[in-house]
Structures are given as structure tokens and as C-alpha cells.
Amino acid sequence: MSSSVLYDAPGPKARMRNRIYSVIGTAAIIGLIAFVIMRLADRGHFASEVWNTFNYANVRIAIRDGIFTTLKVFALAGALSLVLGALLAVTRASDHRAIRWLATGFIELFRAIPLLITIYALWVLFLTYKSDLGFVGENNGFWALVIGLAVYNGAVQAEVLRAGFNAVPRGQVEAAYALGLRKSQVMTMLLLPQAVRSMLPTIISQLVVTLKDTSLGYIITYAELLYAARQLANTTLVNGQYIYVPVIMVVGTIYVAMCMALSGLATWVEKRGRRAKTGIAVAAAAEPAEAPGALDPSDPKGPTVDAEQAAAKADEPPGKSD
């Protein structure tokens, strides 16, 4: 009988067949990549004068400003989504039915609406009432993107934290109530810290999604990284063609680097938390005190009793005690 529950271990022929399929698939992928590179090279996309465009100061400044704008939107939207997600998760677990229904409706509404529609609707709203919204109206593109990302990702983070709440053993919650803790204390001191710790990889993964979704700002003409790259590609002509391919390669590499840095930070935080959890020093248990007159298992003769003391005990009248 095979030791595997899901599938049987492949035999020699199956392993050889899998190796052949792997080699063929790898060769096909490498061949496709080589074909694409050759076609791009034939069209002059790898020519030195095309890539020298990125040596100009104005091009570097445009890309740098796009990166800073993207990171600014991500930092604010990510922080707001975490705060909003925690509030929604706590209110959804409320004992009050009305509050619980409101939180559930908010979460389901913004999870169901496409993010692009939310951002575009907020942008149109801010443009329409620009004079009545103060500083929001003056920066309508920025706030439409930030608020749209915050409400959508906040709804998703709320569901992530709710899953973390459900993962906490029920016995811990019952023990906390038995100790006299209130619902708010149980939520803030017991459920929320454990939910964040257990769901940290998923929370960081959703933050990576938030970072990538900042590229939707180009739809509302907000000057984030993708919009800056699009403007650069549309206005730069080298050897009779626009530099779309080099710009896509550079900007794609920047996005990949930012997402990998955020994922690396998540991995580091998770390992640090695991190391701190497992590195707690435990005090050695003290040796039990030996009771007077206790039997020593290593002594076959047992405890010795003085003969005079035994005779005195025998001569004592009944009822007399020390």
C-alpha cells in the first residue's frame, strides 16, 4: 500500500515521463522568450539610443516623481485600510444587531463594487463638488485614489481579521469572560493581537495588492508611476517609434522590486515574531521538598528509629500527646 493519501508515488516510467515533459516544457518556454527577444531586437527596441533616453535628467525626474507619488498614495491608503479593516472587523463581531448589520453591509458593498468604479465615482464626485470640499476638491485625483483604495482594501482586511478571530480557540474566549473581562477587553487584549499575528502573511499580501492597485490612478489622470510612464512613452520618439517597450520593462521592474521589498519585509516580520515567540526562557522547576520521615526508595532498610524513643512512646499513657 502506498504511504501517500492523495496519490500513488510514481514509478520509474512515470518519473522518466515527467522528466521528459519538464524538459520539453522548459525548452518551449525558453524558445518563446528567445523568439520574443529576437523580434524586439529586430524592431530596434534594444538599440543603445533607445535606452540612452533614460540618461536624460527630465526622464529620471519624471520616473522618480512617479515613484514618490505611488509610495505616498500607498502609505496613506494602506494605513487607512488597516485602521478601517480593524474597525469593521470589531464592529462586525458586535453584540448589537444594528451595528453588526451596518458593518456587514459596508463590507459586502465595497467588496462587490469593482475598485476602478469606486475610484472613478469618487473622482467625479470630487470634481462636481470641488468648490464645496475644500482641500479635497483641490487634490481630487489624490483623494479619490486614496479613499477608493482604503475602502476596498479595508473591507478585504476586515474579512481577513474576522477569519483570524474565528481561528482563536473558543476556550480562550470563555476563559477571558470567566475572569470577568468585558467584550471590549476580550477583543482588544485577546482576539485582535492573535488575529493580527496569525493572519500577518495575508495582511501583507493584501498590502501588496494595494500597492499594485495604485496604478489605477492613471485612469483619472493622476500622476502616479504608471501615468508618468505612459506620458513618457507617448511623448518620446526615437528612430521613428515610441519607446513603449523600454518604458514597460523599466516600470515593470520597479513595480516588481517594490512588491518584493514589501513581501520581504513581511517575511522578516513573521520570522522575527516567530523567533520572539519561541525564544522565551522558561525557568527550571524547583526540586520538591522532602517531607520529614519520608521513605527513601534507594534505602532498602527504610527509616531507622531510636530504641529509647520507641520504648518511651510505648510507656506513654493513652491520650497523652506532645
TrEMBL record:
Superkingdom: Bacteria
Limits of the ABC transmembrane type-1 domain: 67-266
Any one GO biological process: amino acid transport
Membrane topology qualifier: Multi-pass membrane protein
NCBIfam families in the cross-refs: HEQRo_perm_3TM (TIGR01726)
Membrane-traversing stretches: 20-41, 61-88, 109-129, 141-165, 242-269
Protein name: Amino acid ABC transporter permease
Coiled coil: none
Localization (cell): Cell membrane
Chief location of this protein within or outside the cell: membrane
Secretion signal span: none
Family to which this protein belongs: Belongs to the binding-protein-dependent transport system permease family.
InterPro entries named among the record's database cross-references: AA_ABC_transptr_permease_3TM (IPR010065), ArtM/GltK/GlnP/TcyL/YhdX-like (IPR043429), MetI-like (IPR000515), MetI-like_sf (IPR035906)
Composition-biased stretches (Basic and acidic residues): 313-322
CDD domains: TM_PBP2
Keyword list, A-Z: Cell membrane, Membrane, Transmembrane, Transmembrane helix, Transport
Record field: compositional bias (Low complexity): 285-294
Gene Ontology CC terms, in alphabetical order: ATP-binding cassette (ABC) transporter complex
Pfam family, one: BPD_transp_1
Region (Disordered): 285-322
